[in-house]
Amino acid sequence: MPLHKPSSCLLTHTMAVVNTRSANRQHLATSGESVTLSQPVTVAIVDDDPMVCQAMQLILTDYSNGDIRVVFTSTSGSDAVERASKELPDVILMDIAMPGMDGIEAARQLRALPRAPHVLMLTSLNPSHTVERSVEAGAEGFVSKTDAPQEIIRRVLDVCQGAPQFNVASQRQLIADLGTQRPIARRDEARRLLDSLPERERETVILAAEGYTNAQIAARMFISERTAKAHLSSAADKLCMGRVQLARLVERADLDDSM
Fold first, then answer.
1. In the chain, which residue ranges form alpha helices assigned H by DSSP?
2. CATH topology (fold) of 184-258
């Protein structure tokens, strides 16, 4: 089944929360201590679903006890960048998946502004394969559209104090992405080292790693066995590796994958 943004459910939940705020309202706390702001934090909300913008605006406006003021909402990444350059919000809640300019590219452009806002990525789904890209674009955390109002407001206020705001789902995904990238980084480093060798030395190292003897390498490369040994010795000296280490380097480079 296709995945849909739960905007109607979010709005229903938000209205229920707002309708009970008179009985439940309390000043938000950071690390258990009350926060007193000299002026409200200004926020912009960007989501291609207007109902999500409306729901988030209700949460931030009606449940922050005056600590947050929404300066604009937008359904377009490009429009948000243009408006942010003029209205200068402190924080932008940015949806990821939007037509045209997506939230990650919009975040990159926002963070390049002379007065760059803090950017929190706004998501309703598991942020698979987006956490690292968002961080590289300058985002300082994630906020789930289904988080409790107090949690959303806390993240908005805390990010203004320089505290990264990563929920559990985004933390897990970041760890998974790092785990996936480590073998790729090792592969790329191995390829870089092999490519640093002269072409004939590189060819000799690869053949040796495939199990060819010096004599067989010499025959395949139409060189003398002495020259083959000299190529291997020179490569080993340049990379500070023995023959076994060279073989493992070729294995890590996974050269079949680069063909």
1. 7-19, 21-24, 50-62, 77-87, 103-111, 131-137, 149-159, 168-195, 199-209, 214-221, 225-239, 243-253
2. Arc Repressor Mutant, subunit A (1.10.10)
134-144 tens-digit pLDDT? 888 889 989 98
Contacts of 84 (CB under 8 A, 6+ apart): 44, 92, 110, 113, 117
- Phi and psi angles of residue 127, each rounded to the nearest 5 degrees, phi first: -75, 50
Residues 254, 256, 257, 259, Cα dihedral to 10°: 130
Superfamily (CATH H level) for 7-164: Response regulator (3.40.50.2300)
pLDDT in tens, 7-66: 555 555 554 444 444 344 444 334 444 444 579 999 999 999 999 999 999 999 999 999
Whole-angstrom distance, CA of residue 166 vs CA of residue 185: 24
Q: Structural domain boundaries of the chain? A: 7-164, 184-258
The dihedral region occupied by 102, where left means phi > 0, alpha psi between -120 and 50, and beta the remainder, is: beta
pTM, to two decimals: 0.58
